[in-house]
Specification:
The chain is mainly beta. The protein is 4% helix and 40% strand.
């Protein structure tokens, strides 16, 4: 069965979740005029949300990002991810993004909580080990904040790299694209991409860097970016996790999204490729009408000799626990 679960706080922030992929179907927040609108780029019809294949709002895994050649060797044994993408995208065609999670909803003193859980059997989509995955959403009552916590534990060594693939657009009901959104990422380094696979860690040069906040559209049409990924689709490595890792602003609506996370990287993706879907702005899905901010471990570490950080290798009976915090604000003039 498919369920949609709505939670709301005193700031009139409304979060609509679904048990399909332990996902976020929609988030509505107020703008400078206290007008309540969606800040996600999401299908207008719930049925389309269930069947679409752009991972709109879904939890991605077992491994977010791509695994090169859809293969990896763990403990001397080769595994193949069942995937339509040559590089094992977001956990493969039988990944968790479109699975039916069980869920419970509770109200606590400080927040509303929805706990999703899914039991993935060994070799589902090609991954070793049984794994229990929990995705826990909390919408706070006295702070305009949504947190997402990812918990997992596996019966054998496996790979696990969980993230959320929501498509953000702060303009309100996606009335315009995100090229005029201002973006800050606390990252001086990134991973260079070649054929969509990370190759090495490099310093962020001007066309890639968001260390100094600027408009997403300032350099997105640079030939190097367009020829490589048709827009932004790169892992950025946080300089630290001491403060906000990411800030996204829309000057017109004055909406601000701030993100803190325990993860070391974020993959930003600017909706470079689209499906024929009717979206919540009553138009078909269009490029650059959203930005995904996929906080996660480094993707594809198991096949990347240049990376020593192998946190996405989840050892038997070791607990996986990471959190992403989303703060919703309206900027004062």
């Amino acid at each position: 069965m498919v369920y949609f679960i709505e939670i709301k706080n005193k700031f009139n922030t409304i979060v609509t979740l679904s048990n399909i992929g332990a996902s976020i179907y929609d988030i509505k927040t107020i703008d400078k005029n206290k007008k309540l609108e969606s800040i996600l780029y999401t299908p207008k019809n719930e049925d389309d949300f269930i069947t679409e294949r752009s991972y709109l709002g879904k939890t991605i895994g077992r491994t977010g990002g791509r695994i090169s050649n859809s293969k990896f060797i763990l403990n001397g044994k080769e595994y193949t991810i069942n995937s339509n993408d040559p590089n094992g995208l977001h956990g493969g065609i039988d990944g968790i993004s479109y699975k039916e999670f069980e869920y419970t909803k509770v109200e606590c003193n400080d927040y509303f909580e929805v706990i999703f859980s899914y039991y993935s059997k060994a070799l589902e989509s090609g991954y070793p080990g049984d794994i229990i995955i929990k995705v826990i959403y909390r919408l706070y009552k006295e702070i305009n904040k949504l947190t997402v916590t990812y918990d997992a534990i596996a019966s054998d060594d496996t790979l696990c790299n969980l993230s959320n693939h929501s498509y953000f657009n702060l303009s309100g009901n996606a009335k315009s694209n995100v090229l005029n959104h201002n973006l800050y990422i606390n990252a001086s380094k990134m991973e260079r991409i070649e054929k969509l696979i990370p190759q090495e860690i490099v310093d962020c040069k001007k066309i890639y860097s968001f260390k100094n906040m600027h408009k997403i559209g300032d350099y997105i049409n640079d030939k190097e970016i367009i020829d490589n990924t048709n827009g932004y689709d790169f892992p950025y490595i946080f300089d630290s996790n001491d403060d906000f890792n990411i800030i996204l602003k829309d000057e017109e609506s004055k909406r601000v999204l701030k993100i803190k996370t325990t993860y070391p990287t974020v993959v930003i993706y600017t909706c470079n490729y689209v499906e024929k879907l009717l979206m919540n702005n009553d138009k078909l899905m269009m490029p650059y009408y959203a930005i995904c901010l996929e906080c996660m471990y480094h993707p594809n570490t198991i096949n990347s000799a240049f990376l020593n950080d192998k946190k996405d290798i989840l050892l038997k009976n070791k607990k996986y626990n990471e959190t992403v915090e989303y703060y919703f604000e309206v900027e004062n003039d």
